[in-house]
């Protein structure tokens, strides 16, 4: 089934084309994340969506990435990575078109889910293409750094383009952005991208796919619903039980499978295990933080999508700038220092953001976001390259897919966990903030009931008369209380990941050796 020609590294004349296509593919995969995030307040206002429903806009994209990324990696190994790459581009474009034409929040979810499935096909395929084209792990680190910079470039330009588009044409047109890139990449790949497969025969692992998809979906659903209805809600309890049982079933079937979707022997490598855990934690923190920050810009600072986009671009732009540099530094500086130091910078920036309020200036919040972005830039490439280099070459594609899968699980949990903390903290604080602002009696009950039922954004739909500015200021203060809870949680989690990296990664990991 697999010929010798498909197992050999790409010839030099094709290697450049392969790497360019890999970078373009990951750009298409990640472009919707921040372009949609910066437009969440506009989407919520247009479609009357609650905070929980808006978190599902993000999770509808990230969930399929987490659930199907391992399967996509196996499909590429078995049937050809070029085919899976082209399928991912097509799904990304189709999903964007569906969301563009959506008349309700549910159809936005459908479009996001299709695009997320496309991203699930692109992520492991693009890394596997690089591993195939550059088998030397020391040289590969440089190109993974370029790949990571392409990822961060998508996160950077997404809000910069989405802002003007949303304000001048409407939020729907942000979904036009990925289409020309996907179409162009599709056309170029047809002409220039060589086919490749895994050097050893593999089979599709349907029991593993089903159990992991159920586990991830149930876990994220349970976390989101817990933020809305509490941990005691029957649906939350059932969802979390299903997640645990499905996760256990996944481990059981993978241990018995002759061709596992995720070979559990990978976790015998300490470097792979640690970097994969860090990938999940860092993306939980990053994607969750972007979700909360976009809501802060829209609901508290009352910024338009252009102003919010530029602020997010500061963070992601800083990360992009240092991403390629980090890939080169891997051969001079230990990976544990790069990753651990980067995570420490991210945690410090998150704790520094605890002091912001509704009147914080662009410059005051900007330097904190730049520090956070610089820290993430030193994490992304070394984290991925270390995970791939820690396993035998024949497992490089599976290792890349596994690392990406856990990263996307963290990305899916980010808006769910931080959205739940944000809602819980804000709802708990709101009665006190309203009372301090002089809002009592029936009006206070009406505002609290609206927030309980539809999230903080629901207040904008109430007829508050002359009390509107006072109520909105109180809502903003309650949001800040919830946001502080999110930042404390996120900063502590990131700091713990930094300690884990410095303690558990062996000295010399990622350096030239």
Describe the structure.
This protein is mainly α and 513 residues long. The protein has two domains: 7-205 and 259-426 and 482-504, Growth Hormone, Chain: A; 206-258, no CATH class. It is 79% helix and 0% strand. It contains 17 helices and no strands. Helix 2 packs parallel to helix 7, helix 3 (40-47) crosses helix 4 and helix 15 runs antiparallel to helix 17 (468-504). The longest helix has 41 residues, at 396-436. It starts with a helix and ends in a 9-residue tail after the last helix. Residues 1-8 have low confidence and may be disordered.
Layout of helices and strands:
Elements: H1 4-7, H2 12-37, H3 40-47, H4 51-79, H5 81-100, H6 105-133, H7 137-169, H8 178-192, H9 206-229, H10 234-256, H11 270-300, H12 305-329, H13 335-352, H14 362-389, H15 396-436, H16 441-454, H17 468-504
Helix pairs in contact: 2-6, 2-7, 2-8, 3-4, 4-5, 4-6, 4-9, 4-15, 5-6, 5-8, 6-7, 6-15, 7-12, 7-14, 9-10, 9-15, 11-12, 11-14, 11-15, 11-17, 12-14, 13-14, 13-17, 14-15, 15-16, 15-17
Membrane topology: Multi-pass membrane protein
Keywords: Membrane, Transmembrane, Transmembrane helix, Transport
Domain Major facilitator superfamily (MFS) profile: 18-509
